[in-house]
Amino acid sequence: MRISGQSAPSKKKLSYLEARDYATIEQRVEEAERLVQAKRAELEDPANAMDAPRLVAAQAALDAAQQALDVLYTRWAELEQKNG
Description:
By secondary structure, the chain is an all-alpha fold. It has helices spanning 16-44, 52-83.
């Protein structure tokens, strides 16, 4: 029921750039997930177990990949909410 003088809440639409971002975000998330899996496998590789510098580098790469994935998920949620 709408009270006279008040309009229904307007639904925000995605801007052109947001729509382009939204159109590709699922694919980018999938790619980022594959990268995280690859970096995790590299970290867990027994061949690297005794190589401390390699383990440190592998952990840093995994952390960076996970952070990038988290940013994509956050952006996806923002776009989903705005898109309705």
